[in-house]
Amino acid sequence: MDWLGINFINRHNLFSHFACWSDVTAPRRFMKPFCLIWHTSIWRERNSRIFKNQTKTFDVLVDDVKALSWCWALSRLRIASCLFYEWCWNPRECLKRKR
Known about the structure:
Elements: H1 14-22, H2 28-52, H3 58-76, H4 84-89, H5 91-96
């Protein structure tokens, strides 16, 4: 999770995983939609692997998450425009900007 500047520890079960994410210092209104985007992307990849026999590398999946979360942030959050390379470099800085 270097991209977000969050230290991530892989947990053994789902409940521990969500407890880990509840400690993130970002406001809940920011984290909730991003968690949904991440889970949706992983779910779509799962379905592609199972039903279409198609796979993406981990790097491509992360790039898809970055692009989808960037599009969502620009359209739904009241932040000043942020270029995609800025979003990939430091999304927290983009989230701090106000319109």
